[in-house]
Amino acid sequence: MTWHRKLHLARRAAPPAILALVPALLLAGCAEESPMPDPRITMTMDGMVEEGHDHEHNEGDAREWQGTPPVLELRIEEGPGGYVAVLEADGFEFAIPENEEHVPGIGHTHVFIDGRLDRMAYQAEVPLGDLEPGSHHIEVTLAAADHADYLLDGEPLSAIAMVEVAGEVATPDLSITVGYAAGDIDIADDRFEVARHDIVEITVTSDVAEEVHVHGYNIRHEVVAGNNDPLRFTADIPGVFEVELEDSGLPLFELTVK
After folding, report:
1. What's the whole-model pTM score?
2. What's the CA gap between 256 and 195, in Å, rounded?
């Protein structure tokens, strides 16, 4: 299988007349006692693009874990601000955002929601926000400080959890059914078009294990042989995108988002 921040700082400015009365040393002491939160501790996809991390990884963007592998456990908690992914990682240490030099066993995580890279994080607790009704697949993978994915025997070092959100599941605006058997693809068309923010559902039935890759969205969806678990996502990026079977390298169709 091919492997697979956006916090706004609020600063309170004191009136100039008051600042003039406060010694510089006292101001420095206050800053040390109440540091501003680092916006890079968890970074959304928008933030990663701004920082130059597109995270469309390929085989060269990974390295095998050295030494005893970490023990990972992922749980999803619900709080007043929405859902939170909490990763217990015994044997793994989080790096500081400024350090991008590789040190074995140190790094950050990539958080995927339903196969789509949502954000990277430098802490164990990662906010997911509100999730739409339905079943959601949450995966957290380990990455080195230089953004290379950590692998164990060629597979991503990751932890997975499922969460069920109560409520009525929205009807998809576009449903695409694909059959893949004996190397042949069965699909109604090879081009589809949706409006921006439409919900797309792709159901692939295969006689072998595969992975559906939606290019441009960085969505990767595992297909289990004989299973037809659908891939759902919101088409929120305009453009023309190729959808393919990643392991076989076979294109399925072209999706235009207007």
Report:
1. 0.71
2. 8
